[in-house]
Write a structure and sequence with these properties.
The complex is a heterodimer of chains A (296) and B (253).
Chain A lengths: L8 H42 L5 H5 L15 H32 L5 H15 L2 H15 L5 H25 L3 H8 L5 H29 L3 H4 L19 H9 L4 H32 L6
Helix pairs in contact in A: 1-11, 3-6, 3-8, 3-10, 4-6, 5-6, 6-8, 7-8, 8-11, 10-11
Chain B lengths: L6 E10 L2 E11 L4 E5 L6 H8 L9 E9 L2 E2 L7 H6 L1 E4 L10 H11 L5 H14 L3 H4 L12 H13 L5 E5 L7 H14 L4 E5 L3 H7 L2 E6 L2 E7 H6 L4 H7 L5
Parallel strand pairs in B: 3-8, 3-9, 6-7, 7-8
Antiparallel strand pairs in B: 1-2, 1-4, 4-5, 9-10
Helix pairs in contact in B: 3-4, 3-6, 4-6, 6-7
The chains are: A mainly alpha (296), B alpha/beta (253).
Amino acid sequence: MMFERTGTGLDGNLRRRKRREAMFKGLMIGSTALVGASLLLIVGAIIWKSVPALSLSMITQTPKGGYYLGKEGGILNAILGSLYLGLGATVTAFAISLPLALHLNLYRKSGAQSAGRTRLFLDVLWGVPSIVYGVFGFLVMMAVGLRVSLLAGILTVALLEFPIMSRAMDEVVRLVPRELREASDSLGATRFETAFKVVVRQAAPGILTAVLMAFGRGIGDAASVLFTAGFTDRVPHSLLQPAATLPLAIFFQLGTPFPEVQQRAYASAAVLTLIVLLISVTARRFARRKTKHVVK
Amino acid sequence: MPVSAPISIRNLNVFYGRHQALKNVDLDIPDRKITVIIGPSGCGKSTLLKSMNRLLDTVDGVRVQGEILVDGENIYGPRVEVTRIRKKMGLLSQKPQVLPMSIYDNVVYGPRIHGVRRKKELDRMVEHYLSVCGLWDEVKDRLGQPASELSLGQQQRLCLARGLAVEPEIILGDEPTSALDPQSSQNVERRLMEIKADYAVVVVTHILRQARRIADHLAFLYMGELLESGPAVEVFADPKHPRTRAYLTGEIS
């Protein structure tokens, strides 16, 4: 008969759908747990391994003679070097990224081909391995006669950070509603005023995320500073002196055959992680006070 | 030629790419009256409104032909400063768009841009324009709070105050009550009726009853063409064009 019900088939289907739901839920929980466990494991292992080497002298002293053989000293040179380099590079990258992101979204027609091409270009740069930036920076240094120095390192790392920062900013600036811009425009604001007084304020939390992402990538990178900032046991006192960095300090200490020096490498990693964490938390706390006006 | 109308639209054609959104529109906006532009969705109402303060400029692929005279000056002329034109008009959008700053800073955003710096002057403006919009008593104790914490109805009145604070001659409203509850809508309508004593007000709406309540002058737009315009009483009582009649009686909407 044509209009007869088809019977029990539908229930079987339901059971399969429920099974699929359960399977996928399990997968999602599993993935989340895996990520969480990895993070704990990484941080846990670093701290566990670094406990014997952690000491006050480690963060207050520069390496003394024979430090890499297990003698006295600390990694103050690398801590300060990394801070100078990370902050310098992030400020430099910011000075380029913010205008670029605003230009892409407010000054060009939104569907413009050139804007699309710029985004593609930035995406490609994002994916370029950092060693390539290091090599490129080194080539430029040789061409202009700049020696291995904090300045060369800052510029190279800024180059590495810039695509990340500007592309991330681009995405958040794009989310600012057109109507909000129109509200400012309609009051007789110039595009510049709308950009800096309204769009930047509205996108501020996302812009901060972009900056912190780029900072984290920059301060943690070893390959780009290897040939450009170099490595030294001294704290740099000028932009033209070489500077040590934590990632390279980790690399060199871990590369020694002495277990006590290797422990210091883990301690250095813990310090690096702590620096990134501290700066992120402080920046966010500071930002929360500044961004309460953001329109939801 | 004496300027009787603050805005005169002459033979206006607007194209989005190949699509023609407005066809040969001629319209005079009278001063100190509320002009309501009605018509079905997609008929070009918002386009017409946004052409008046050149917000259309920011739309991709738009092309404008014809003239819009504001105080006798063609705003689509070659050497016109857009910001100066926009300063002459306050805009209320469909959804209230408060700026990401405090209530106080929202009101003085325009004045500050245009060079008012003295705190006393700014304070005076805030109190004055918030009072005009019936908001002063509600917010005077929390001027430093984020504007986004206000209710939608309060936000729209704040937007009106913000628009008035640049001392415009004309107020444009693009379905300014469509996101509001009935009470807030009524409140905004009442403000518009009050301020028309000093301004030319243009409101786009698709709510016929709202048009009946507030319109002094009525314009009917259909598929990009201005089919009829005139004093509201006359158009409502005796529409000349059959399509206007059909729209007013609810046969088309």
